[in-house]
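Dissemination and training. As part of the outreach component of the grant, students in the summer workshop were shown how a complex can be specified as a set of sequence lines and then modelled as a single object. The example used during the hands-on session is reproduced here so that future cohorts can follow it. Participants entered these lines:
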Amino acid sequence: MAQIFYMAETDSTNSDIMRRAAQGAPEETISVALKQTGGRGRMGKSWFSPEGGLYFSMLFRPETDVSKYYGAAIVAALSAAEALWESVNLEVGVHLPNDLYCSGKKTGGILIETIVAGNTLLAMAVGIGLNIDVKKEDFPRDIRETATSVLIETGKKIPPRNLIIPLRTHLIENFGKLKTQGFGAFLADARESCITLGKRVSVRYEGRESKGEANDITSKGALLFKPDDGPEIEIPAPDSVTFI
Ligand code: BTN
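and obtained this result:
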């Protein structure tokens, strides 16, 4: 069985797992830290990473065509939602492209980083950040009204480490299924859990931003978006999707 590296502190568990990947760590190796000094989100943003959160990264070595993994962030989000439901009875929704939401606020995020050669996906770090034992007043002012945590939602003080094994179990099961069956096998669950669908949103992609309706997820994990000023389009990896 691949190792789980438990760290008191690291810069970013995604960076840590990629360093271990470069040294030959096997698939399913995990890095977990009590806090991060340089936690990273998507699009160059930072990720607030005090003690009380879960900072978890898992290594996969798909060695297959990169297009099979376009839905990987949604699969990771579904896995985290399953782990949260199983461990703390908290229902979270998936907000495209990579967020976990509860009561209209963000409780976690997914950061997938890859090493690709040609069209082959050689290695992939699946990074998951969950706000667990974090009080409202502990969040920085700029995200205090838009972020939430397991503590805020349930009133329960849960040690973040309780989520590690459930997350590992669901990720291994779901990424195994993604590899053999493709994203289509998750489509029904993704549609059910996705809070973005059917809403008016502003989508940023390919250097532009447009307003419209988030209509559906495709069998490849792309967003089907109907801009107000044009026909429906498929967006495989939107930079951001904001409710309006
Ligand atoms: C986002 O919402 O933009 C994604 C946030 C991802 C944060 C996690 S915490 C564990 C892993 N290490 C990082 O530096 N980032 C991810």
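The two ends are 46 Å apart (CA to CA). Students were then asked to discuss how this feature might be tested experimentally.
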